Amino acid sequence: MSTVTTYRPASLAELRDALADSARAGEPLAVAGAGTAADWGGEPTYDAVLDTTAMSGLISYNPTDMTVAVQAGMPFAALQETLAAHAQWVALDPARASDGATVGGLVATADAGPVRHTFGTSRDCVIGVTVVLADATVARSGGHVIKNVAGYDLAKLFHGSLGTLGVLAEVVLRVHPRAAATATLAVPCDAAAAFELGGRLIHGSLEPVAVEWCDGTLLARFDGTAGGVDDRGRRATALAGADAQWLPGDDERAATHWQGVAGLVRGIDGDTVVRLGTAPDRTPALAGLVTREAAAHAVDAAMTSSPFAGAHTVRLRGGTAAAHAAVVTALRADYPATTVCRWAAGLRVELPAWGAPPPAVAVLRAVKRAFDPDDRLGNGRFAPWF
């Protein structure tokens, strides 16, 4: 029985030394944070694990600069708590944050939440990174200035790389002021109606910070001054019709709605959870496909979408692993890059980790060879693509 070596560095120097030791040993290496995305994609093969959770410190933070630098193993929720003391936040709301997801883990998985509608994903919040490559080379990109065009953009390259190109050591992020008030508009409707109403809210200059259609309800969140939010609430409610509910920030029903979004994204044991991207106007068609395939294979399906960002999560529950595989296969037929983030028991036997490779797979393979020529980091995570 083989023994898995665990490295747990607490500093950049220790991380560099760990990568150097691993390179000398020729070990296939898995990079781990809090473990909230350990199942995403393929199963890596490894003889050693590099645990980043001891690298959890705040490096620098000056609220007037609107930037913060942290070690990549810092829990994202802890970072938000630190910023909240100065009425600031990193404009990300990923579901995994409440489970302890780290800053580096969120970058490595390209994760985000409903406010992606306005603020984008982690690639839009990160303005600088320090990484350690497979051969223990330390590389830096970006910095504390909001606009920086010099050098190679490692932050975007590592965004969504699932630990296959190197190890994120330090991350510099832009921060935003926290809104004085927030409220949520909730409207029960199907996907087509949600897309139509959401478009009217956006083009009506109401500026929702998040627009999410979750399992039959359109949710639009409005942030700003108390007076501004109230004014937009009156206009949004009039636009949405009699079925609309206006829920101020202290209304527990608003929190329940958004917790429902996060719960669907995370799933529970026995669920299959996938995420995929589409053109915004494909949201109703995707919802129809999910409904038809789930019914055909006797699976309960739920879906949450940021329709105008084209980002969707589908949760499958009940039924057999083969039934889950059939639904995911149908999704991949139209959306090949569908990513499985949670695997029901037995599903890996029924379903390849990934669908058909993207047109740019040759570029992905070339980047992998350049950064990790011995294929030691996250080997198998993107198999069979590379």
Automatic annotation (TrEMBL):
Key words, A-Z: FAD, Flavoprotein
UniProt keyword Lyase, yes or no: no
Short name of any one Pfam family annotated for the protein: FAD_binding_4
Residue span(s) of domain FAD-binding PCMH-type: 1-178
Hydrolase keyword on record: no
Transmembrane portions of the chain: none
Gene Ontology MF terms in the entry: catalytic activity; FAD binding
Highest rank taxon of the organism: Bacteria
PANTHER family with a match to the protein in the record: D-LACTATE DEHYDROGENASE, GLYCOLATE OXIDASE SUBUNIT GLCE
Protein name: Glycolate oxidase FAD binding subunit
